[in-house]
Amino acid sequence: MSARTLFDKLWDSHQVVAESATTPGVLYIDLHLVHEVTSPQAFDELRSRGLSVRRRDRTLATLDHSTPTLPPDANGKRPYYTPEAEAQVAMLEKNVVDFGIDLMGWDSPNRGIVHVAGPEVGATQPGMTIVCGDSHTATHGAFGALAFGIGTTEVGHVLATQCLLQRKPKSLAIRVDGALQPGVTAKDLILHIIGRIGIGGGTGYVIEYTGEAVRALSMEERMTVCNMSIEAGARAGLIAPDDTTFEWLEGRERVPKGEAWNRAVAQWRTLTTDAGARYDSEVRIDASTIQPSVTYGTHPGMVVAINAPVPAAADALEQRALDYMKVTAGKPMAGEAVDVVFIGSCTNARLSDLRAAAQIMRGRQVAAGVRMLVVPGSEQVRRDAESEGLHQVFRDAGAEWREPGCSMCIAMNGDLAQPGQLVVSTSNRNFEGRQGKGARTVLASPLVAAASAIAGRVADPREYIEQEAAA
Ligand SMILES: CC(C)[C@H](C(=O)O)[C@@H](O)C(=O)O
Ligand code: SF4
């Protein structure tokens, strides 16, 4: 057989019916993740047709988007933001019982944002096809799985058949050579990439991230990178699995054990792009040139190095974005006054993210007038962080330590910013109103977010890291 890319291998091993000029192919799905927002109509459809879930053992649900991050009151009542949010959660709780599906619900020690909790329990594994009614499903591609978001109608198709109609996308290699500088994180890398290729740069492609800077990333950093593939328009983002992947996965609840683990790893080691395999397109990036980066506009492609001047608007839409953000071309983002700092979301709410932020915040205070929310991505992250005392570091600094959920990433659960407020956020979307009507979002790394909370303005974390090194 001729040389194949990792993506080709994943596709070939899951396409059960080939596509033709007039019909899409049929792809077998190994894992279907479900959350409360995009599943109600899908389950209703099954009900109305008298269908059951085809592979309950390959379906796993969680509660994350609509869940409040404040604890229940003395009567156990949770402070849902709206009756709709509460109904959505109740609906999924009912659906998993009616259809016999596992739910990481309120009483589970594993509940969390779907893209944090799925990998943590070992449901996400190399070589799988993974779907979820959620655009950030590409996160799971960090494990060498073909993972992408689907719509609610397709959620129904997968529930009923465990298959999906798909045409094969093209492949794009993003090769990152060199090494990231101190204070420059995986988040800066992916923001830089989207800034470079644009929000349409990945459209029609599955991206494979390669190169020595990608190999050097931890598993959690790889998830941060793959998470935002959709923000470049890509169908999915992938990183070939290696020892970093296997070490991270070994021993987790849902991965194979004993001899079966060894066999799985041996098979997973074949999941690499063959020498001589061709991508449809390639981009090269030099990691050593990347600075801590932030967004300055209203989509994730409007990215600038934190100390570099904001570029002039190229068109009326960009000018509208600058006006909305109250940002001036020619001035850097560093120094912009900050109202709210949010550390959370499926992009950056894992233990290493919280450690990075805590490193800067330890012994310091959130600036007067700044509100800071730290929201762990899952119950596991919360437990691990609390056992290290990170929650205390954040609380001592004056930040709020919340319960796991999507929180202020999407502002549909009660956590939101006020009109006009500027939020430095570790999430992945900065659209108008994303974090509350009129709220202005600056996407950044946990290091930039923590430094900005302390400074009360958008700040370069290297100022604080250097102080520490000097001390
Ligand atoms: C609610 C859900 C459908 C949505 C998505 O698909 O990504 C959300 O997670 C988001 O981040 O905007
Ligand atoms: S954390 Fe944000 S981006 Fe991630 S799934 Fe939740 S709403 Fe979507």
UniProtKB/TrEMBL annotation:
The keyword Iron-sulfur applies. Signal peptide: none annotated. [4Fe-4S] cluster binds at residues 346, 406, 409. Residues 8-456 form the Aconitase/3-isopropylmalate dehydratase large subunit alpha/beta/alpha domain. One of its GO terms (molecular function) is 3-isopropylmalate dehydratase activity. One of its GO terms (biological process) is L-leucine biosynthetic process. Pathway: Amino-acid biosynthesis; L-leucine biosynthesis; L-leucine from 3-methyl-2-oxobutanoate: step 2/4. SUPFAM superfamilies: Aconitase iron-sulfur domain (SSF53732). It catalyses: (2R,3S)-3-isopropylmalate = (2S)-2-isopropylmalate. Its EC number is 4.2.1.33. Keywords: 4Fe-4S, Amino-acid biosynthesis, Branched-chain amino acid biosynthesis, Iron, Iron-sulfur, Leucine biosynthesis, Lyase, Metal-binding. Its cofactor is [4Fe-4S] cluster. Binds 1 [4Fe-4S] cluster per subunit. NCBIfam families: leuC, PRK05478.1, PRK12466.1. Heterodimer of LeuC and LeuD. Catalyzes the isomerization between 2-isopropylmalate and 3-isopropylmalate, via the formation of 2-isopropylmaleate. Belongs to the aconitase/IPM isomerase family. LeuC type 1 subfamily. This is 3-isopropylmalate dehydratase large subunit. It comes from Luteibacter rhizovicinus. The gene is leuC.
